[in-house]
Design brief:
homodimer; five-stranded mixed β-barrel; five-stranded mixed sheet; Rossmann fold; 482 residues; 35% helix; BirA Bifunctional Protein, domain 2; globular; alpha+beta; Translation Initiation Factor IF3
Chain lengths: 482, 482
């Protein structure tokens, strides 16, 4: 297959396709709408469930809204409309005739959910009001598309919360970051920076936007989650009011959080994958342990019996294990299961059976060793933790090695050209008055964008803005993005 | 609240609404598209997961198709088009302009999935090819709508299988029935008949259709699953071919199975619910055990401590348990949790604490007894099984009591008027030549329909068709339906 280092883009396309790990079929006939294949569905369900667990543990209740939204909903929030209108899909006909009121397909939940919040929330006793929806898709008419990176229909997950004051809402932003850290980094090993976006690059209608910025080897950032401090703007538009302790009517303070399910999938592929295919953390692998028999004419029965015995034992112990008893050659099987990223492979041949041993191969390092069958469970227990640790270490090193510092526009340009990554540079302002510098940066670097400043951490900065030369007030992170 | 027996329809509407168990909010603004509220989402996820487990255990792999389908797909299968065209929603605009090719929103998966099967299936080695999709919605422009009974957008679950011959396909129809039995009857306690539909009432494009017919107290059948023997018709339309052992190219034989997620929800509400609200089987209850403290000024602390201790113990034991420590009165709490159908309520007051006892109330029978705390776990273990058993017994009796026999049209009419239910009657033919009699039946009974004959079981029949008077060849089941 294609080399990841040489040509990330082609490598990525291949690994998604049927000649790779067969994750997404793009031949379906609607641009930007993929068929998610079984292996991908199983992986995505796993981390979707991790996220569900995380937000539910923090008191979010699930609801599920329809895909269709009445036209009237979008016209209420002017800024939000401006942001999403060009991307909307419109349902104009049904039942054989034109609809009296058109529907759009939700591009994200705000405009469908908040009018209902207006009906549901009455009192300060209802707050904090925390809800989420998952196991659904959203629709955006994007000009260019790519599996899991940019789609016209894609899997979505969103939390929508209402608080009694701004302080509580801002605390939720921090909690959202913790969900992302606990799932995407702690369990999946995808490193990211949590950045506060500049004012000119916010979610349509938000006061402030925060993004979890991961990184792909083509030198672009991959936003795997975002959180928005919505202030009271939507609450005022959609009438989300509560009576406080003094029976005074107040507007709610809102946040919304969206871990990017498809972007996490892209991150898993891009961050851990190698030239032999996917490399999956133990926690999300649909098959965690694959057993490959090494058989000859003689002794096949004995080997199969041993494989079945071990399969049963590991299944009993709660692992997702599979015994590959197809007619394919061991070499073909090795390649196939390596392509799919299965973390542990057990090889069992006559030698192993005779010596009461088993050969254990790990996907991440491709190390192989023969151990006693008696030590197998302990070994797997160790590997289930160690594989993630090793993946993290490698991913962290790669991520850290691709964060550069620059003091001038020329340096930024130079790094983006030769050694693409994320660049820290001094900047005048992340308020709207810094937008002009940002426009210049984008033109001069063909797409380099100010992604923001570190959240909740004032980094020391000296010198001058790399564009306008005025006093620098921020150390911003600059990168190209997906 | 409304009385179930007196007016099922109003009772059903109320139990779904915010003054009832708050399952579905119909105020969203799109007719037939409900907001599924947290309690309903949690219940539905539970049986969705049961179904996933069941079909996966029988080798179905999950995939997920987009919601949008290109217009070209629907024009291929003439019969299927005729069936679904009037119900389609059409996306005609996106990104600010008219689309060159329109998309429709899937009404069911066949027309989107089968062209891809044509690409994926190559050889007899690929067969049987068994896939399913769940955690998605479908869209049908229905004239009238009702939460969980008839919607314009609703949750869907579908299996699509391809076999090498008709015999294997027909075996799958039997397996589909087993999935339904194992989930909907064994675990949820919803009784049903598995019927083969007459030829004039098949799924558009199918050779034969089979339905799992449950029953609601307004005397209508509620189809909670259907299975279709598709023969080779779709395979020929969409080019689903395989090379057999002799390298000869053959068309696949197909089946599809759809447990009706929303109809199962309707069944759970309608079959088990009573005048105090929902009654949930233990397996799907989002909260299985609710702990209500009975407190007075004095001793409140002691009671709360005991409640928390028991909550922790039961959580540890794997139960979904909740301690209601809100300020509401015990009576209010009893009503609230009964409305939500929580199977077991524990009441703990100073008396219980002093005597090391706990009062256990079961939702299904509303029986209450005080037992020793030491016996609590054993009691709950017993109830988790016994509640389902009791619900089933009651539901079975009700179902059986509403299956009548008739020998004449007058009798059918009489039963449908006075004592609505399912009626067994002699019938001329379930082939297309029986359709004329069916039209007459429908007019004469204002909506009574031949739902079919028992699947895989030839019932003895004598006498004459209740309509045309010709020799009866079948004992058919007649009912009004949702």
């Amino acid at each position: 297959m294609k080399q990841k280092k040489e040509n990330f883009s082609e490598w990525y396309t291949e690994i998604c396709s049927e000649t790779g790990a067969n994750l997404a079929d793009v031949r379906y006939g609607v641009q930007g709408a993929i068929v998610e294949m079984p292996w991908a569905v199983r992986i995505m369900r796993k981390f979707e469930e991790m996220l569900e667990k995380e937000v539910e543990a923090d008191d979010h209740e699930p609801f599920l809204f329809p895909t269709l939204v009445p036209e009237a909903n979008i016209n209420k929030e002017k800024e939000h409309v401006k942001g999403f209108s060009p991307e909307l899909f419109w349902v104009t006909e049904a039942g054989g005739s034109k609809l009296a009121e058109k529907y759009y397909l939700r591009p994200t939940g705000e405009s469908q959910i908040y009018p209902m919040f207006g009906l549901w929330i009455r009192s300060h006793k209802d707050l904090p009001y925390k809800r989420y929806q998952s196991r659904m898709t959203v629709f955006r008419f994007e000009p260019t598309t790519r599996p899991y990176l940019r789609g016209r229909e894609f899997n979505f997950f969103e939390c929508h919360d209402v608080f009694k004051d701004h302080k509580s809402a801002l605390k939720q932003v921090e909690r959202d970051m913790v969900y992302s850290k606990k799932v995407m980094y702690d369990q999946l090993g995808i490193p990211f920076l949590f950045l506060q976006r500049p004012q000119w690059d916010k979610f349509a209608g938000a006061e402030n936007t925060f993004g979890a910025e991961s990184f792909t080897p083509d030198g672009r950032v991959n936003t795997i989650a975002s959180t928005h401090d919505l202030g009271q703007k939507f609450a005022k538009t959609y009438g989300i009011k509560f009576r406080d302790e003094m029976e005074k009517e107040e507007f709610g303070w809102q946040t919304c959080y969206g871990p990017g399910l498809v972007r996490i999938m892209a991150g898993l592929i891009a961050v851990h994958g190698d030239d032999r295919g996917l490399v999956l953390p133990f926690s999300v692998a649909p098959v965690q342990i694959i057993i490959v028999p090494i058989t000859f004419e003689k002794g096949k029965k004995k080997v199969f019996a041993e494989c079945q015995k071990i399969e049963a034992e590991l299944k009993e112990a709660g692992y997702r294990v599979k015994f590959d008893e197809t007619d394919n050659s061991p070499g073909w099987k090795f390649n196939q299961w390596e392509m799919l990223g299965v973390p542990i492979r057990l090889e069992i041949g006559p030698k192993e059976v005779d010596e009461k041993k088993v050969t254990v191969a790990r996907r991440d390092t491709r190390e192989k060793e023969m151990i006693s069958v008696n030590d197998l469970k302990k070994k797997i227990e160790f590997l289930s933790v160690d594989i993630l640790k090793t993946l993290k270490k490698k991913a962290d090193a790669y991520f850290d090695n691709h964060i550069f510092e620059a003091r001038t526009l020329a340096e930024v340009r130079d790094i983006l050209m030769k050694n693409p990554g994320i660049i820290k540079a001094p900047w005048c302002s992340i308020n709207i008055d810094g937008e002009n510098c940002s426009d210049i940066l984008r033109k001069e670097t063909v797409g380099g964008k100010v992604r923001g400043v570190l959240f909740n951490k004032q980094e020391k900065v000296s010198g001058k803005c790399i564009i306008c030369g005025k006093k620098a007030n921020h150390l911003v992170y600059i990168a190209k993005s997906h």
